[in-house]
Every structure is written in C-alpha cells, then in structure tokens.
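Notebook entry, structure prediction.
Reason for the run: the old model in the group folder had no record of what sequence produced it. Starting over properly, with the input documented here first.
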Amino acid sequence: MHKLAKIIALMIGLSILPWQAMAEGESVEDNWKSQCAKCHGADGKAKTKAGMKLKLKDYTKAEFQEAFTDEEVFDAIKDGVKKGEKFLMKPYAEKLSDEDINALVVYIRAMGE
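New structure, fully documented this time:
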C-alpha cells in the first residue's frame, strides 16, 4: 500500500508541473505589470495613487539609481521593506523566484538609462 501511495503522489505531482511552469514562465515585463506597476507605475516613476501616498522613489532618476546597490534592490523585492513592524512593501519571495527578482533588478536599472 505504501508503494501505491508514492505512485499516486508522483502522478499528481506530474499533472501539476505544466501549470507551475506556466506561472513561473512570466516575462520580466509581465512580472513588472502584475506585481510592481500598481504602486511603482508602468514607467517606474511612481506617479500612481499608491506611489504618491507612500512617497515611493522615481526609478528613472539618477539619485535612486546611484543610492541603491543591486543587492539592496534584490533584497527589498525578495524580503520586502519594513518601517518598524509594518511592511511598506510586501515581500515577493513566495511569488517570484530569485531568477525573476534578478530580472526585475535589471529591468529597474534599465529605467535609469
């Protein structure tokens, strides 16, 4: 019976795999639009209602680009940004892979060029 349970679990896992691959196959532009643009704007200027309320940085400005390292931007996306115990930006570690986050860092850097 134990062997049968393993076979069933394997079959279920294999049937889910294509759906997981589709979700993880998002382009960096798709991830930006679905995860970031609501607050940071399509162009990274943060001229959205949420962006202005939270006083978010304009990613196109040299001041932002020079003030933060790639690692700091990566960590902010992955782990979120907190002020005290409150998240100013939620963490995306559960929604985005490290590869997706690295692609977003490159995407954000390109906004400043």
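Summary: Confidence is low (pLDDT under 50) at residues 5-23.
The old model has been moved to the deprecated folder.
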